[in-house]
Design a protein that fits this description.
116 residues; alpha+beta; 5 helices; 14% strand; globular
Length: 116
């Protein structure tokens, strides 16, 4: 497994977020991004997870709720990548993938776009 500190991985996630066009980040609403070492035991290969209500499904009822949560998992990413460059690329793909879920884009469409 490739070695990378939690701090360095968090920086990569931050850099991936910084590369999201400002036109999109301005539209993001009530969402927080976290880095965790490992996903739940039932899905050890999960690279990222979006939990919340996509913007496309929010209605008048959507108020006073906790932020949506995007979690990027360090362990599975490092296990699947052979180099730092691969980690950078995979982290960016995962961040975009999870943000896309926030915008209501499903996995099928993300796979078509190359973010699967």
């Amino acid at each position: 497994m490739l070695e990378m500190s939690r701090e360095e991985f968090e920086e990569l996630v931050g850099e991936a977020l910084d590369r999201i066009p400002v036109e999109l980040t301005r539209l993001m609403d009530n969402v927080a991004v976290f880095v965790e070492d490992e996903p739940a035991a039932g899905d050890p290969d999960l690279l990222g997870l979006y939990e919340g209500t996509p913007l496309t499904e929010r209605g008048e009822w959507y108020a006073g709720v906790l932020p949506d949560r995007i979690t990027i998992y360090r362990g599975p990413t490092l296990r699947m990548c052979a180099s730092r460059e691969e980690v950078v690329e995979e982290t960016e793909i995962t961040v975009v993938h999870e943000i896309a879920h926030h915008f209501g884009i499903d996995d099928r469409r993300l796979h078509e776009l190359g973010y699967g």
